[in-house]
Amino acid sequence: MSPDPQSQVLGHLYASALRGTGAVVRLESVADPVAGLDAGELTVVPGFTGRLLATFARDSAARSDRGVYWALAGALPEGLAVGDYAMTAEDKPALAVTKATATAWGGTDLPLLVKHCTGLTVGAVAGGWAPNVVGRCRLPKVREFPDDAALFAALHARQITAAWSSTADPDVPEGAVLLTDARPALVRAENVVPLYRRNELTEAQLLAVNQVAGVLDTDSLTDMRRQVADGADPQGVVDAFLDEHPLGR
């Protein structure tokens, strides 16, 4: 688990699920959770399907929710397994445009960006990851900004046409809209999912881990991430969520 708000939320959420079975759970902050899992230092690591797939099969062409999940399951090394993915909870890269741009393009569907590929200028926060291709549109080199505030200020000042964000980013301002991906997907899926070490969870523990997928959605993930970013205690935020959305009900 890393110190960023989203990792804190997911770490505490899956830990709480396991504690509900009577398990003794210790949260660990490590630089590379997947390596820690593979080395046997960790038992469960929550993450996102697409990012995990890139770790194990970087060249995979899978994009859809189901396709990415099964590609990930097939790419895992011996000893690791993947739990149920949250079909309604994701944090995939998404392009934001101003409402004026969306109106001019005639909507907020991502394929509209492909139709307006020529002349696009795209920005992103420095150090983040963003696709360089969306469908048939090869995007120009992104302009980098130090943070979300500077990125969206440039968007509203029309210094860039679109800004890379994500579907669970709590910092997307009211004046911007995220373009909605299509079917078939143009951007690789990033659904919440747990990896775990085989033969180390009991049947009850694995059931509890998988039940998270049934209660978590993108809006709730975004809200919890916002609360933690604003200084709230991650465990308290997760406890409040589980009080309203009990597992296995």
List its traits:
single chain, 249 residues, alpha+beta, D-Maltodextrin-Binding Protein, domain 2, five-stranded mixed β-sheet, three-stranded antiparallel β-sheet, 10 helices, 39% helix, globular
How big is the Rg? 19 Å
CATH classification, class level of the largest domain? Alpha Beta
Can you tell me the number of structural domains? 2
Tally of helical runs? 10
Strand content: 15-25%
- In whole angstroms, the N-to-C terminal distance is 27 Å
CATH topology of the largest domain: D-Maltodextrin-Binding Protein, domain 2
Q: Main β-sheet: number of strands, strand sense, barrel status?
A: 5 strands, mixed
Based on CA inertia axes, which overall geometry fits? globular
From the 3D coordinates, which CATH architecture of the largest domain would you assign? 3-Layer(aba) Sandwich
Poorly predicted segments:
none
CATH superfamily of the largest domain: Periplasmic binding protein-like II
SS class: alpha+beta
What are the secondary-structure elements, in order, as H or E? HHEHHEEHHEEEEHEEEHHH
Helix content: 25-40%
What would your notes on this structure say?
- There is one protein chain.
- The chain contains ten helices and ten strands.
- By secondary structure, it is α+β, with helices and mostly antiparallel strands.
- It has helices at 5-19, 33-38, 49-56, 65-75, 99-105, 111-115, 148-156, 203-215, 218-229, 234-244; strands at residues 44-48, 80-82, 93-98, 122-125, 133-134, 137-138, 143-145, 162-166, 176-178, 192-197.
- The protein has a five-stranded mixed β-sheet. Strands 1-10-2 form a three-stranded antiparallel β-sheet.
- The chain has two domains: 5-89 and 188-244, D-Maltodextrin-Binding Protein, domain 2; 94-178, 3-Layer(aba) Sandwich (D-Maltodextrin-Binding Protein, domain 2), CATH 3.40.190.
